[in-house]
Amino acid sequence: MHRNQKKMIRQRCSLFVLLLCLCSPLAAQSGLLSLLKKVGSKLDSMSVKGVDRRYIDAPERPWQFIVKGNINQTILSMRTHGDIEGVPYSAKPQLKTTPSQYLGFWVGYRGYGIGYTANVGGDKGGYLTFGATGGAYGVNVRIHNFENKTPNFNLNSDIIPEDGKESWTKVVLIDPIRIRTVMADGYYMFNGKKFSYSAAYDQSVIQKRSAGSLMAGFMYNYTRIDYSSDVNGDMVFLMGGVGKVKLWQGSAGVGYAYNWVPVRGLLVNIMAMPMLTFVNKLRAYGYSTNIPQLMEEPEFWDPNISNEAWDQWFYGKLHVTPQGHETYNSGLTVSFDARMSLTYNIGPCFLNVYGQFNNIRFSHSSSKGYLNDWFIYTSLGVRM
Questions:
Q1: Which are the contacts of 57, defined by CB distance < 8 A and separation ≥ 6?
Q2: Average pLDDT value for residue range 82-109
Q3: 3-state secondary structure of 194
Q4: CB atoms within 10 A of CB 195
Q5: Are 214 and 185 in contact (CB under 8 A)?
Q6: What's the CA gap between 100 and 172, in Å, rounded?
Q7: What are 341-371's pLDDT values in tens digits?
């Protein structure tokens, strides 16, 4: 074969390979778009499948883009007793974080979405949320990680003299308390034909007429509270040697929810559900401190030392030592989940205010108490 002919064949082969390389991403992209269209069509049909269109309607625009503002607070209340250096000890401590403000977004399609809010005042942290709601069900996951340096303590401890308790209600920690909560809940609506959970809580559909529904639900909660650093040794000491707590709970219950539509475009939702907690495990991590040894040193009782110098001396020497952990399984307890939502639809736009309160109880031989967690969302969204 002539040399020029070989060269021409090689050039054509190279051009063919180049065309394949260019066309392959386009084909893959086309296939992905086709798949997304099929999924979208499926979700579109599911959003109104089996519902009474006189009561529930799906907007023509399937996407929800929402800007959210959030305020929340966590309260941990305990009753503990034990023994410190041979001295009986009892306390009823309460830890209350400062109400904190968050700002973020939510993006959803026909009731399936994801959102994130970040701290803009108070605690340092953020919320990551996932949601999936349909005609007869709703599933939500909320992950909250935050730190708090200015908790409000009501220690009620017989270790602290009366004139010293007030100072602990205004404490500013050198090292913050670190808290993480994972909350997952799911609901089944027995009247999903006329009642919509998503109309009130993610605005993917619109409730046109008032309706209510009996609901069955479950909830999983994981909470970790950790303040076990050396400079928090005084707080560990006053908490009976407990420096970290982990709590796992699983609950199920039956409740009722009602959507009230007083005028066109306005929706008021109220939901209440008592729950029976059948998984209730608490793991307490114990720590010893060197506070008894520091109390024997002359600096501890020196009336002439300044507060700044005393803090530098005390927190420079203070340390905690892990002593292991104990796990307690509580019996059946009753918890409570309550929610309320107000939504106003104006064409493709909507305004929503949504509040939730969770009461979680635990108990074992040496400690019992509760964890209250509440938040309020305010959001402004548009359907596209």
A1: 48, 205, 206, 208
A2: 70
A3: coil
A4: 27
A5: no
A6: 16
A7: 999 999 999 999 988 887 777 665 556 677 7
User: What are the two backbone dihedrals, phi and then psi, of residue 25, each rounded to the nearest 5 degrees?
Assistant: -60, -35
pLDDT at 84 over 50: no
CA distance 107 to 41: 18
Long-range pairs of 87-92 with CB within 8 A, sequence gap ≥ 24: 89/157, 89/158, 89/159, 89/240, 90/157, 90/158, 91/155, 91/156, 91/157, 91/158, 91/159, 91/238, 91/239, 91/240, 92/154, 92/155, 92/156, 92/157
Range in 18-27, 48-57, 131-140, 146-155 the model is least confident about: 18-27
- The per-residue b/e assignment along 43-77, b for 16 or more CB within 10 angstroms, e otherwise, is beeebeeebbeebbbbbeebbbebebbbbbbbbbb
Of 126, 68, 129, 66, the residue nearest 100 (C-alpha): 126
**What's the distance, CA 289 to chain centroid?**
32
Of 94 and 105, which is predicted with more confidence? Answer: 105
Do the Cβ atoms of 151 and 98 come closer than 8 Å? yes
Tokens 């090689």 correspond to what residue? 10
Residue type, 118: A
> What is the DSSP track for 114-181?
EEEEEEEESSEEEEEEEEEE-SSEEEEEEEEEEEESS-EEE--BTTS-HHHHHHHTT---SS-EEEEE
Q: Which of 2-16, 54-68, 126-140, 266-280 has the lowest mean pLDDT?
A: 2-16
**Tokens, residue 67:** 């800007």
**Where is pLDDT greater, at 200 or 5?**
200
Helix H or strand E segment including 35: helix 3-48
**Listed residue (246, 241, 225) closest to 176, CA to CA:** 225
Cα distance from N-terminal residue to C-terminal residue, the chain: 63
What digits encode the pLDDT tens for the residues 185-244? 999 999 999 999 989 988 889 999 999 999 999 999 898 989 899 999 888 887 777 788
